[in-house]
Amino acid sequence: MQFLLLLLVIAAGMGLSVEAGILGPLSGEVGDLWATFSIFGVGAALTFLLMLFFSPRQSPSFFSQPSWTLLGGVLGPAYVVILTLTTPVIGIAMTMIGILAGQVFKSLVIDHFGLLGTTRRKIDKRRIIALIFIIIALILVAQG
Question: What is the domain extent for residue 33?
Answer without folding.
Answer: 2-49+74-143
